[in-house]
Amino acid sequence: MPAPPRVHELSEEQLHPPLRTWSRLWRYLLAASAGVAAWIASALVMLSSPMTPAQEDVVGAALFLDFGLGVAALAMLPLRRRFPLAVACLTAVASVASATAMGPATVALVSMATWRRRAWVVAAAVVFTAGAVVSEVAYRPRLSPAEDSALDIAGGIVLSVAFFAAAIATGYYIAARRELVATLRERLAAAEREQALTAQVERDAERNRIAREMHDVLAHRISLVAMHSGALAYREDLDRAQTAATAQTIQANAQLALTELRQVLGVLRAGHPALAVPEAQPTLAELPALIADAREAGTDVRLDASGLQTPPGKLMPQALSLTAFRIVQEALTNARKHAPGQLVTVRLAGVPGSGLEVEIRNLVGTKANPDFTPAGVGLTGLAERADLAGGTFECGQRADGYFVVQANLPWNE
């Protein structure tokens, strides 16, 4: 799985996603409710002590100013995402003379902290602390009939600083949570892309496999059918018995082609038991029959298996045997197409533990069979088969005039 994106790789929209209507509304309601509660508590504290008429006028004006500054601070909250530091500092300044502004100031400080800018936090801390000192030392004592002790003033300042620290910590937590959610979404999107890419690669590999199997199965049989049908079309010296025998050969090869096609489809549809066909894939055990078919089609084939050593009781792995059979089958088909009438030599050699060597050679023909059009995919399919088996594959015309197909396949004990 790809590594998670770092913080600077996440976009601003991911770290600060747009808020829905309700998400904005409940923040404003929370700030307003906290501000009104703070205003009521402050009013109760101020009005609980006996005051002179002059002091009552001052306290009334202070409460009116408190509420007005709170409303102004609340009105600035919609701008907190465009100007985080400015809104946080202005609401902090308003909270010097307004308990109502503490609610909006809290929301503004949390919003500013989600950006996780240290310089912003330091600037806001200086403004907020200075405001707390001014409020506790110079402003609120003027509104209280009783004089506050130095301990009460220090306690108020410490409480304000602790409140500021809690708001900043909440903002950092929200930012970390947003980052985690954005990272998980990035991982999910990357995993989905990787899964889609893997599925596409698997589909392409399966298409290649199907094409390779279909080519290997049908090319040999169809070439035999075309060879014999061409004989019926061009040879006029065949008697009735020879014509019937050739027609029977064509029919037999067509039926074999259909049978082998069903075998391949059965293997490819192994995940569908209702469609599967139990027949096994061909192996080197069917090599004599393959050579007999080639000879019957007019190709002189000689088999040399003297170098093939199989210990008693040891069988060649089925996958290896199938790969070797397909290589010989395709090579005989190509020889029949491109070098009709030439001798083809098939040589098998190898021993478990050292590997299996398959070599097919024939003289290059003077002209190819006109009934066949080269497709150029057979040898490519053989190279893919050998590569999938972990072996090597070479083919081409040699200096001595022979066209050689040679494969070396691993043969484990």
Overall description:
The protein folds into two domains: 7-194, no CATH class; 283-413, Heat Shock Protein 90, CATH 3.30.565. Helix 3 runs antiparallel to helix 4, helix 4 runs antiparallel to helix 5 and helix 4 (84-94) packs parallel to helix 6 (118-143). The radius of gyration is 44 Å and the shape is rod-shaped. It has a five-stranded mixed sheet with strand order 1-2-3-5-4, covered by helices on one side. Helix 10 links the parallel strand 1 (301-308) and strand 2 (344-351). The chain has helices at residues 12-15, 21-47, 53-76, 84-94, 102-113, 118-143, 150-234, 240-268, 287-296, 318-338, 378-388, and strands at 301-308, 344-351, 355-363, 392-397, 402-409. The protein has eleven helices and five strands. With 413 residues, it is an alpha+beta fold.
Describe, in short, the structure shown:
By secondary structure, the protein is an alpha+beta fold. Helices cover 63% and strands 9% of the residues.
Key structural traits:
five-stranded mixed beta sheet; alpha+beta; 11 helices; 2 domains; 413 residues; disordered N terminus; Heat Shock Protein 90
List the domain count as a whole number. Answer: 2
Structural class: alpha+beta
Largest sheet: 5 strands, mixed
What topology, given as strand order, has the largest sheet? 1-2-3-5-4
Report helical residue fraction. 55-70%
| Extended strand count | 5
Number of helices: 11
Bin the strand percentage: 5-15%
Question: Which SSEs are present, and which pair or pack?
Answer:
Elements: H1 12-15, H2 21-47, H3 53-76, H4 84-94, H5 102-113, H6 118-143, H7 150-234, H8 240-268, H9 287-296, E1 301-308, H10 318-338, E2 344-351, E3 355-363, H11 378-388, E4 392-397, E5 402-409
Helix pairs in contact: 2-3, 2-5, 3-4, 3-5, 4-5, 4-6, 5-7, 6-7, 7-8, 7-10, 9-10, 10-11
